[in-house]
Amino acid sequence: MALNGKIAVVTGAAMGIGKAITEILVQNGAKVVLLDVNETAGKALMETLNKQHGQDRTLFVSCNVESEQQIKAAFQKTVETFGGTDILCNNAGILNENEWEKTVSVNLLAVIRVTYLALEHMSKLTGGRGGVIVNTASLAGIGPLPSCPVYTATKHGVIGFTRALAAASTMSGYGIRFNAICPGFAQTDLLSNMNNKLGRFSHLADATTQMVEKLGILNVSEVAAPVLELVTDESKNGEAFMIFPKAKQYVTFPKVSSSG
Ligand SMILES: NC(=O)c1ccc[n+]([C@@H]2O[C@H](COP(=O)([O-])OP(=O)(O)OC[C@H]3O[C@@H](n4cnc5c(N)ncnc54)[C@H](O)[C@@H]3O)[C@@H](O)[C@H]2O)c1
Ligand SMILES: CC/C=C\C[C@H](O)/C=C/C=C\C=C\C=C\[C@@H](O)[C@@H](O)C/C=C\CCC(=O)O
């Protein structure tokens, strides 16, 4: 299988999109370390997948991606258990315009923090094997959602960080590809509780609901398949992959050059 012998780390792996990403990576041969704050769901998923695919195929590590110490410990446990990291999916994320500092902390600062710690293990410049990092952004990272401007900002930031790291990696020789997925609305806990998390923009909830009705709702397996494409296609680096129900499209970004 395509990912035989590969070791993956997935954040926010216990539920929703992260659970679907974990499942497709295991189904395609990878060993996966599941990082999440939800220990009950994370351990249950580990036990289910190990029963289905073999006792050494997954490991759950309780980890809050806001904690440098917990992330360092998780990567160390990954090395001790499986010998290294080839694939990282920075997927953990929240939506809460009331707690907007926490939203920035989890959705953007933690993506940066986990990525920089992963580089120490994955980069060919520091003894790693190289690999691929896929960051979970959103369509809100391409088109702004007026009802959740801070969430929108974090996802725009994830895309910019991903594209800059992709270029830096090529120029530096890390041997790591960086890509982002930009899913539309997907049926998860994040979406199902959205109306009570819009804070001062709650008056825009109806507009958001109309947007959900217009765009439709993805099931999480429709999000996981494009992640597998970005992981396995060695030509993909610096991509933002938009995912709609029944359609996927790579973003074409404008070139920045003087108009002269
Ligand atoms: N659901 C959507 O409509 C949608 C669309 C586009 C992008 N996204 C993004 O997909 C990602 C996953 O979201 P989801 O929809 O699956 O939500 P979800 O709430 O179902 O799952 C999020 C998972 O992340 C975990 N998590 C939250 N904070 C954490 C932390 N500090 N440390 C470790 N784990 C943490 C949760 O415990 C949970 O298991 C997020 O980045 C989200 O922004 C979601
Ligand atoms: C409340 C947000 C729920 C989930 C966030 C998740 O990341 C999914 C995002 C999916 C789609 C985003 C689409 C963005 C579209 C914009 O370009 C623009 O067309 C939206 C305009 C009005 C929407 C009203 C609103 O929600 O603010």
UniProtKB/TrEMBL annotation:
SUPFAM superfamilies assigned to the protein according to its UniProt record, in alphabetical order: NAD(P)-binding Rossmann-fold domains (SSF51735)
GO cellular component: cytoplasm
Pfam families, per database record: adh_short
UniProt keyword annotation of Lipid metabolism present: yes
Enzyme class: oxidoreductase
GO molecular function: 15-hydroxyicosatetraenoate dehydrogenase activity; 15-hydroxyprostaglandin dehydrogenase (NAD+) activity
Keywords, ordered alphabetically: Fatty acid metabolism, Lipid metabolism, Oxidoreductase, Prostaglandin metabolism
Name used for this protein in its record: 15-hydroxyprostaglandin dehydrogenase [NAD(+)]
